[in-house]
Design a protein that fits this description.
Blueprint lengths: L3 E4 L4 E4 L8 E5 L10 H20 L3 E5 L6 H10 L3 H18 L15 H13 L3 E4 L2 E4 L15 H8 L13 E6 L14 E3 L1 H13 L5 E7 L3 H15 L5 E7 L2 E3 L2 E2 L10 H7 L2 H8 L8 E3 L1 H19 L13 H8 L4 H15 L3 H13 L18 H16 L3 H13 L2 E6 L2 E6 L3
Parallel strand pairs: 3-4, 3-9, 9-10, 11-13
Antiparallel strand pairs: 1-2, 5-6, 6-7, 7-8, 11-12, 14-15
This protein binds zinc ion.
Length: 451
C-alpha cells in the first residue's frame, strides 16, 4: 500500500519511500517536563501515533522515538518556585505525561530517550560540529555558526532577514550573527551542569534532539520521518537540520511531518487568558476515547478549534458506536482485512476527518449488517479506540464531583437571573458528561448515568 505524507520541506504531499524497507525510523519531539500536558501536547502525540499505526501496517519494523527534555531553564524555574530539585520536578511531570498519554490510548514509543541520559552523545555531537568548523567557542558558550551552513532556512523557507528578526530577541555578545544559536552554555553552581571540554554547562535545546536521533539511527544514517508541532519548524527543526548536516554527510531527514495548533474557542491557549485545557482535567470528565476522537476530528495540518461542542459531538458519536459494538452478537468474527478501507483513507496524508466520516457511514448500516459492524469495531480499533473496552468512567469514582457541583451552581444562578439560555447550555454540558439533573425547590440534584 502507498502511504502519502505532506512533507514540510518540499511543501507537498509525497509518496513515502523509506531509507530501508526493513526498518523505519520516526522521531517526534517530546515534552519538556515542567507542567501538566495540555490538549495541544496531546494532539502532538496522538497524530504521530496514528501515523505509526499506518506505518506498522505496511512495514515489519517501525522504530518510534519520542524524547523527553528533562533539563531546561523552564524546569529549573519550576523547581525553584516549588522548592524542589530539577529531578523531582522532571520525574513528577514525566510520570503525569506518561499516564495522560497512555489514558488516551497511545502506543509506547520504542525509545523515549531522556536528555540527562544522553550527555556523552550530546558532547560527542557538539565536538564533531566544532571539528567540522561549523561552530565556535565564545565566552564559555559553544555557538553554531549559521554562515557555515549554506542551506540554512531550507525547511522554514524564511529569508535571511526574517530569520534575523526572529532571533533578534536572542542577540547576545557571544554571537557572531543574531541567527547563530547555542549548542552548549555554561552553568552556575545553582544550575544543572555537566563536565565538558568547554567547562561545566548544559546543552541548548536543538542539539539534544539531533544527538538523540543520531545516537539511535546512526551518525551516517538518514532519519525517515521527523514530526512535531508546526510551531517547532523554526527555529527548532531548522537548527536540527543545520546541526545534523554539519556533523555528517548523510542527509538529516527525508520527511518532515508537522501538526497544527489547538485553539480554544478560536483563541490561542495561554496561561494569561486562563484558557489552557489540561489532559488531566479532561480525562476526569470525559471518556478518554472521546477526547482522542475529538483530537482527530480536524485534519492534522489544520488548526483544531476546541470548544464544548467538539468534545460533546465526539462523545455522542462514541456513545453511538459503543452501543452498536456492545450489541455485537458473539459470532461476529473480526476478519483480518475488515479495516482496509480506513487504512486506505489514513494512508492518504492521515485524513482523519474522512476516516471519522467513514466510521459514521458504516455505523448506519452496522445495525443490520454484521459485516459492517465488524468493520466498525475493527476500524475504530485501528485508530486507537477500543469500543469493546469496559468503560472505566462507569465507576462514579472517576467523576470530578467538584466540577459537577460548580456547574450546577452556575446553572442555578443563571436560572435565578432568568438566563435560561445559559442554564440550558450548562444542562447540555452536564448531559454530555452523562450527568442528569433534576430541579427541586431552589436546588438541583444530580445523578451519573453512563448508559
Ligand atoms: Zn526536538
Amino acid at each position: 500500500m502507498t502511504i502519502k505524507i505532506f512533507n514540510t520541506i518540499n511543501k507537498k504531499k509525497e509518496i513515502f519511500e523509506p531509507v530501508n524497507h526493513k526498518k523505519i525510523y520516526m522521531y517526534v519531539c517530546g515534552p519538556t517536563v515542567y507542567s501538566h500536558p495540555h490538549i495541544g501536547n496531546a494532539r502532538a502525540a496522538i497524530i504521530p501515533d496514528v501515523l505509526l499505526r499506518v506505518l506498522r501496517k505496511n512495514y515489519d519494523e517501525v522504530i518510534y522515538i519520542r524524547n523527553i527534555t528533562d533539563v531546561d531553564d523552564k524546569i529549573s524555574d519550576a523547581a525553584f518556585k516549588q522548592g524542589k530539585t530539577v529531578q523531582e520536578i522532571s520525574n513528577k511531570y514525566i510520570d503525569i505525561y506518561q499516564k495522560n498519554m497512555s489514558s488516551l490510548g497511545l502506543i509506547d514509543p520504542t525509545y523515549q530517550p531522556r536528555v540527562t541520559d544522553n550527555m556523552p552523545a550530546i558532547i560527542e555531537t557538539i565536538t564533531k560540529i566544532i571539528e567540522n568548523g561549523s561552530a565556535y567557542i565564545s565566552e564559555g558558550h559553544v555557538i553554531f555558526d549559521t554562515q557555515k551552513y549554506k542551506n540554512y532556512g531550507e525547511l522554514s523557507k524564511r529569508t535571511l532577514d526574517e530569520m534575523i528578526d526572529g532571533a533578534r530577541i536572542d542577540i547576545a555578545s557571544y554571537k557572531k550573527s543574531p541567527r547563530d544559536f547555542i549548542l552548549w552554555k555554561p552553568s552556575s553552581d545553582k544550575q544543572p551542569g555537566w563536565a565538558s571540554p568547554w567547562g561545566n554547562g548544559r546543552p541548548g535545546w536543538h542539539i539534544e534532539c539531533t544527538s538523540m536521533i543520531k545516537n539511535i539511527v546512526g551518525c551516517d544514517s538518514t532519519l525517515d520521518i521527523h514530526g512535531g508541532g508546526n510551531d517547532l519548524i523554526f527555529p527548532h527543526h531548522e537548527n536540527e537540520i543545520a546541526q545534523g548536516s554539519c556533523m555528517s554527510s548523510a542527509k538529516y531527514c527525508n520527511y518532515w511531518f508537522h501538526n497544527g495548533i489547538v485553539l480554544v474557542n478560536k483563541k490561542k491557549m495561554s496561561k494569561s487568558i486562563g484558557n489552557v485545557i489540561l489532559v488531566d482535567d479532561l480525562v476526569k470528565r470525559f471518556d478518554p476515547r472521546s477526547i482522542r476522537l475529538a483530537l482527530l476530528s480536524a485534519h492534522y495540518r489544520q488548526p483544531l478549534n476546541w470548544s464544548d461542542s467538539t468534545i460533546t459531538e465526539a462523545n455522542n458519536l462514541l456513545k453511538k458506536f459503543i452501543i452498536l459494538a456492545k450489541s455485537s452478537p458473539p459470532e461476529v468474527e473480526l476478519e483480518q482485512d475488515c479495516n482496509t478501507e480506513i487504512i486506505d483513507i489514513l494512508s492518504d496524508d492521515l485524513n482523519t476527518p474522512e476516516a471519522i466520516k467513514y466510521l459514521s457511514s458504516i455505523a448506519k448500516s452496522a445495525k443490520k449488517n454484521n459485516n459492517d459492524l465488524a468493520k466498525l469495531i475493527s476500524s475504530t480499533n485501528f485508530i486507537g479506540i477500543d469500543l469493546l473496552l469496559e468503560d472505566k468512567s462507569k465507576s462514579n469514582d472517576n467523576i470530578d464531583k467538584e466540577f459537577v457541583e460548580k456547574l450546577i451552581k452556575e446553572r442555578l444562578e443563571a436560572r435565578l437571573a432568568g438566563n435560561y439560555e445559559k442554564a440550558d447550555e450548562i444542562r447540555e454540558k452536564l448531559s454530555s458528561m452523562n450527568i442528569s439533573i433534576k430541579d427541586l425547590e431552589g436546588t438541583s440534584v444530580w445523578d451519573y448515568n453512563p448508559d
